[in-house]
Specification:
single chain, 600 residues, alpha+beta, Creatine Amidinohydrolase, Chain A, domain 1, Creatine Amidinohydrolase, 3 domains, 6-stranded mixed beta sheet, 19 helices, globular, hydrolase, Creatinase/aminopeptidase-like
Amino acid sequence: MSTYADRLKALREQLKANSLDGFVVPLTDEHMSEYVGTYAQRLAWLTGFEGSAGSAVVLPEEAAIFTDGRYTLQVRSQVSATEWSYQSVPETSTTEWLKEHAPQGGRIGYDPWLHTRDWVSAARKALAARGAELVAVERNPIDEIWTDRPEASKAKLVVQADEHAGRSAADKRTEVADWLTKHKADAAVLSALDSIAWAFNIRGQDVSRTPVALAYALVHADGTADLFVAGEKIGADVRQHLGNGVRIHERYEFENALGELKGKRVVVDPQHAVAAIFEALERAGAEVIAMRDPTILPKAIKNPVEIAGQKAAQERDGAAISRFLRWVETEAPKGEVDELTASDKLEALRRENPELRDLSFDSISGAGPNGAIVHYRSSEKTNRKLEQNSIYLIDSGGQYVDGTTDITRTVVVGEPTDEMRDRFTRVLKGHIAIASAVFPKGTRGSQLDSFARRPLWEAGLDYAHGTGHGVGSFLSVHEGPQRISPVGSAQSGGDEPLQAGMILSNEPGYYKTGEYGMRIENLVLVVERDIPGAEKDMLGFETLTFAPIDRRLIDAEMLDPAELTWLNCYHAHVLARIGPKLSGEDLEWLRQACAPIEVD
């Protein structure tokens, strides 16, 4: 099956053999992960879509692929319009589409290890309107036809030392045990991979760019735990680290272990646990308590050691970014630099640092019109040169042993147009609005999102992604529950009150289809703000990311005095923090890039 059309045809034949009239294909794994191992990339294998969020539905005569605004351009460039119809989320969804398109009285299959219980409930309700049935499959039909499907990773687990974690794994389990006792529960299921990595102070290599291991866990009210992971992945150092309080089992034993929890009160997170986990517990006679995974919030609120590590990682990363930006400014005008050359150069600069473990995601290196594709991924087929008088966008990050980075910089090659400078300055104004925001405790990210959009809205412009996402500590580059995003958007992920210690991105942007894209992204830390005379406890942001913002794209006349002060202060901090890590031409370039802007 050398073509995607062949694969779609083969799936339809397999569904017919399985007496199914359709099948739903999500982009996730058994842990509801955003980024998944190669063995679980079923949507990409079937359709060619390489984004990090999407799903598909295959029926006998039609098929649809569902993506949000971040992937409007990408899905059309990667997925054939001949075989697939493009559906936009949140305007529609797989369940809403099935309500209109499922065959009357049909049998629609789904893999219960790849969907949440809420999705299953919504799908059953939608299909009932068509007299159709939702059918759980014992084996995923894509796995039956994907003959060269990769095996799951066999990489060894590694210990995340307390000097980087800031707390011992035993201390974290005790906190979970106390939480369970408070809620009169006997155990909690941990199925999100980053939750397990955080709770047990372990890291892995099972998902590209995300240092997690394929595992499940049960944490009990007595402080002990059961960890389900392939035995070949556990070395003596990890066994010693986990200690006697953690019983180790093979990963495939997890479902049977759920069946032994009869009469127990078990907490399961409906957002992060798949439907099959709920069903196994209910069959066993356990009392299921649908509540948030008790590690989610403690993981999101970084402790002082994690914050210090993040700041150290950001300074290392900022030095690599600054060297890269000088290289682009020097080499791109010669006409030989392309997207892949540029992203390879940045990765090479990052890898000069011994603390780097990996990139935090595949770099988004977009020249000219490719930069307008929000989650663009350059390839030999799409690779473009950085042309004169054009915009180049690079969104990238590193996984350091003490922190995860994520930064976007937009630069001009040659001279920008007046429109480019106007749009970039509006994005900058929105970025500054978030960076300098002060707000009372209890404020949610959705309440701040419009701060970043207002300068664009005033010109009748907007961007189709959230303004900020949470970031982990040598973990997932996209971490919940905190967000800065409109309520109800595809990326909102809930509406969590912001708390001191949370780390988020600040990344407004603007994208002109077919011409260019621009985004300014720094990471920010939620901190307490002491305001004289304040009648409420107040919070604000401390910027963690330090690298120059392209002054050539800024129309200083559009900045008010406070915005100009912020920009000049930011660049002064960049020079103070990054300058000591550079020398020679790199340092001289940084001094010029960070020079204050003056307005007559």
